[in-house]
Amino acid sequence: MRVLMLGWEFPPHISGGLGTACQGICEGLAAAEVEVLFVVPKAFGDESAPRTRVVGANQVQWMPQSPRDAALGVQRVRLRLDESAASPMPQAAASGPRMDVPKPVRDSFVESVWVDSPLRPYATPSGFWSERAGRSSGWDGLPGGSAPPLPPERDTPGWLRWAQALAAEAQTQETPQDWVQDQFAGGYGGDLFDEVARYARVVAHLAAQESFDLVHGHDWMTAPAAIAAAKAADCPLVMHAHALERDRSGQAGDVRVQELERLGLTTADLVVCVSHYTANIVHHDYGVPRDRLRVVHNAVTQKEQQREWHTDRTVKDPIVLFLGRVTMQKGPEYFLEAAARVVPLRPDVTFVFSGSGDMLPRMIEYSARLGLAEHVHFTGFLRGKDVERIYSSADVYVMPSVSEPFGIAPLEAMALDVPVILSSQSGVSEVVTHALKVDFWDTRELANKILAMLEYEPLRRDLVESGRDEVRRMRWELRGTHLRQVYEELVS
Amino acid sequence: MTQVVFYFQIHQPWRLRRYTFFDIGKHDDYFDDAENERILRRVVEKCYRPMTLLLEELIEQHAGAFRCAFSISGCALQQLERWSPETLEIFQRLAKTGCVEFLAETSHHSLAALIDEDEFRAQVRAQHDHIERLFGQSPTTFRNTELITSNQIARLAEDMGYQAILAEGADHILDWRSPHLVYRPEGCEKIRVLLRSYRLSDDIAFRFSNRAWASWPLSAATFAQWLGELPTSDEFVGLFMDYETFGEHQWEDTGIFDFMRHLPGEVLKNPRFGFATPAEIAAKVDPVSRLDIPHPFSWADAERDLTAWLDNAMQRASHRSVHGLAEAVRATGDPETVETWRRMTTSDHFYYMCVKFFSDGDVHKYFSPYATPHDAYITLMNVLGDLRRRLGVPREGLLVP
Predict the structure, then answer these.
(1) Rounded to an integer, what distance in angstroms lies between the CA atom of residue A454 and that of residue A431?
(2) N or C: lower Cβ tally within 10 Å for chain B?
(3) Torsions phi, psi for A149 (to 5 deg)
């Protein structure tokens, strides 16, 4: 089985849990013998997972249709791997001096493919003409003002007439075309919506080049791309709900995001949710019928992790850890408010606040205002070894999320023998037994549980030991099998 | 006679290196020596050396008629001693001319006057001794960090034996009165306060290179003419400014050095004018009245208040946290520990945490080694966390900012 999977990030270039989960899903699918082509907006060249090929939309070149191509319904697409890497790949340094001259186009799926399909990402007539209007240079050769009659559906005679009209024009106005390679910033900043749209266009071009059994898109950023790709590749569509706008922003969500979310979730043949918590929201907010919802919980990448950094630990006092994006969704202020309740009773406790996000400056100021200047240390965003290092320095990990579709971080903490306190408003609390759970708003109870965890060694020991075993059972392989079963509902 | 009183401020902080949570308990090299050296050498080349040589030349040329004063923070003196002793020698030659006064301040350009009187006195004494040792002068004029002054701070300076204290000639303090007369702070018996003539000072320090300014380009003759238009009852004109004005804030190509080269000659053309040091004014001129300064104020930003250093919770909490270690630091009796800790009392660390980004913030940003005020706070709190552990000082619960 071959799946075109669309995601917005992939390790090691991640800003949140989405990329990590996607990598796990790919590993799980590999074990279930599913082959994946994973497309991110921007690839750096060092992404990897078994049976998975990760490419960036930034590596894809496509040629604006000449009138002739358009008339024939041909789209030219190719992949340029050599121009993909924003940072040089490690082997480039080893193999000799870096060249400034452009290297020849390396092998790709296809160098230049002619496809019998009038392909457009937003495959509606109005979408076609609005795109054409906004991109006059890319569509040179087509008459600007008076559009030929719109093709209503691809298999009606209208198409034929339209193609003939264009072909007639093409005879008089044939201009050479240049390859277009879109730039992608990756991440979530800047022109995110513009990037979402351009990503969709590139992915749709790509989807038509090869055959896939299924398109699987992760979260709203990929919804337009996934819909266009499924249409182009003529295969079923699965959308995967990791985090919803409501989780991120509460009631004050971005309407544009919600609409893309709605588009993806209601168009998909099946929607995979990371928890029952999320499935309920998808059902209630977007009216997706329950028989189209499937729950596949996240899991943990199993490594033989020891608390190797434990001896390296330099701070002797107990450490309570917050680690996650510093956004409203993650409830960072409840962590600080609980800290302010703990410190008067246990001034020896250090609280470590890791991660970055739009609320970080406010949280730093808030910690000072709460009187926690000496008790809270901020590490900023951590990567790789530093993440393991901070987990294994911690005596308690707290995830006070306001709304957490899943929340993989506590499982990583448990895998590293750190006992966790979870918000009950999280998907992960559905699958974890050996953790303390608390309503995020109840900072008094959160403080109480932090203190209990620090005071009562037997409690800690039980949570650590049982929690470790519990996490060991949450393998991506099992999720991959589960996901394949979901696919098989759609692919005979 | 109206005297022109030039006072130049020199200060360089000991900037902290990037110090993360993972460094706590592991590293006690808190300071970014390479960066501190790089900045000092740059400022020496662009400002300290050429400007000081120019002043030496002017003093010689005018045979004692041109005079000025310096306050050089202890941190800056340490850095000059370490990385540019040849520049320090030029200042030492100036000290010998008898035309240049060196003022007293806190050794570490700190805000100790606002929080810890004992530490304030200790730092002023240390700086006093340092000046005596390097320049052979016993200072009689005091200037507090960033000219932060109040009745209370003036009383402290008076108690330590100083004859004069410098302050900003701020409108809200003076009201209708002239900044060009000598006053006595409320509650003081002997000390005189000499005020900064901010309009004329800022014509040189801030507006000099501003092409949108009606008086651009400013010539020494024009400036002397402006002085000539002042009432004859004015006793002195306090031109107080950062020394980096010359060559660093105003680059050489703005003509700032030429301006200074010609200014003394132009001023002295008018027999009504001379140059004097703050100590000379304090010795000769009696106060015309009392000046009430109930709340500390400074020479910084548009507000002339303390909000550049001690306004938001990060600034107030970290400043309290630094000074909370004072007793434990002094108890070690270890000069190296005391020095390390004092470098954290330097006002710059708190200035970097200023979030007033919109009007004065851009100035703050220019001077900050950090990308954001929050980075400044995080770094200082990490360093303090390490120092606290080394001192074995337990935390005592919430630290209300």
Answers:
(1) 24
(2) N
(3) -55, 135
Residue type, A298: N
Question: How many residues are present in chain A?
Answer: 492
Measured between beta carbons, the chain B residues lying within 8 angstroms of A378 are 21, 374, 378
Question: Alpha-carbon distance A435 to A438, whole Å?
Answer: 10
Q: Which chain B residues are Cβ-neighbours of A350 within 8 angstroms?
A: 385
What are A50's two structure tokens? Answer: 């078994």
* CB < 8 Å to B385, chain A: 350, 374, 377
Chain B residues with CB within 8 Å of chain A CB: 20-22, 24-26, 312-314, 316-318, 320-321, 355, 372, 374, 377-378, 381-382, 384-385, 388-389, 394-401
Instruction: Give the pLDDT confidence of A408-428 residue by residue, as tens digits.
Output: 889 989 988 999 999 999 999
What local confidence, expressed as pLDDT, does residue B157 receive?
A: 98
| Residue A147 scores a pLDDT above 50 | no
User: How far is A231 from A234, CA to CA, in rounded Å?
Assistant: 5
- Mean pLDDT for B370-378 is 91
A97-140, pLDDT tens digit by residue?
333 333 333 333 322 333 333 343 333 444 444 554 444 333 33
Q: Which residue of B has its CA nearest to A319?
A: B21
* In chain A, residues 301-330 whose CB comes closer than 8 Å to chain B: 314-316
**Which of the pair, B353 or A77, is modelled with greater confidence?**
B353
* B209 contacts B254 by C-beta, under 8 angstroms: yes
- The Cα B356–Cα B362 span in angstroms is 9
Tell me whether 0.90 is exceeded by the ipTM: no
